[in-house]
């Protein structure tokens, strides 16, 4: 008898890493789906032990507790024009917000739902709080880092940013490489182009993932607009096409 395909309702129990991303709970009953996500056309495969990955880990550890000196959030001045649910000059990508309601939210950006993430961020905002704010109105997130002389690094390849949500300092945003468990979530959602829901985990007392509740996700089309080498913006588009973006994420070097 053929084994039925995995669906979001069949997500196995998980625990959390310190920054809130899923981490597999060791269990003899754990069944992981085969990862069939395609390599994005704009990015070649990177080894988990590559120098860039190790550099990200070292910088993240060294700077997580240090402040970024910036008196205020400076959003990029832009002329992004919205027409028929499309941003002029933008490139459409798939964005997924996911995480446990009381832990930090993750943002995965993909070329399409069936490709590997081209960008994965951990934001110091509880998942439940962000989704609640999105239900009330427009949310603007600014990720700000310091501009250095002769900067050659792409802005989305910076390892850490000061995070502002609707103008209020909210900690930091950190870029990281996808874990196996992140890829499991993306694999289970590979047939979902847009939507929201939960990936339930088994409740249980004590430690483990049971105390964290359901893993919540929201997937939508984003429009990526590159303003300059020091500014880039992602607009999450409203699927009904009758209004502007519900979520705007600004990357800026100042």
TrEMBL record:
Regions of compositional bias (Low complexity) in chain numbering: 1-19, 40-53
Cleaved signal peptide residues: none
Q: Which domain of life is it from?
A: Eukaryota
One of the GO BP terms on file: hydrotropism
Q: Cite the residue spans of the region called Disordered.
A: 1-53
Q: Name one Pfam family in it.
A: DUF617
UniProt-recorded name of the protein = Protein MIZU-KUSSEI 1
Give the species.
Answer: Brassica cretica (Mustard)
């Amino acid at each position: 008898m053929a084994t039925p395909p995995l669906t979001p309702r069949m997500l196995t129990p998980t625990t959390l890493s310190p920054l809130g991303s899923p981490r597999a709970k060791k269990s003899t009953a754990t069944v992981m789906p085969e990862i069939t996500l395609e390599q994005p056309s704009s990015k070649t495969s990177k080894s988990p032990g590559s120098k860039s990955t190790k550099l990200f880990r070292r910088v993240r550890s060294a700077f997580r507790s240090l402040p970024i000196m910036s008196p205020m959030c400076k959003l990029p001045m832009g002329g992004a024009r919205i027409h028929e649910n499309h941003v002029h000059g933008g490139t459409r990508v798939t964005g997924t917000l996911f995480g446990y309601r009381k832990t930090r939210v993750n943002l995965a950006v993909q070329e399409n739902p069936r490709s590997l993430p081209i960008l994965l961020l951990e934001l110091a905002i509880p998942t439940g709080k962000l989704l609640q704010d999105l239900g009330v109105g427009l949310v603007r997130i600014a990720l700000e880092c310091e501009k250095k002389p002769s900067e050659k690094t792409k802005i989305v390849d910076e390892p850490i940013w000061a995070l502002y949500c609707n103008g209020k300092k909210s900690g930091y945003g950190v870029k990281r490489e996808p874990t196996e468990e992140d890829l499991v979530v993306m694999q289970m959602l590979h047939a979902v182009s847009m939507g929201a829901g939960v990936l339930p985990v088994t409740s249980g007392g004590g430690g483990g993932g049971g105390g964290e509740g359901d893993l919540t996700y929201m997937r939508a089309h984003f429009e990526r607009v590159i303003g300059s080498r020091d500014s880039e913006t992602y607009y999450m588009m409203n699927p009904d096409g009758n209004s502007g973006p519900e979520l705007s994420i600004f990357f800026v070097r100042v």
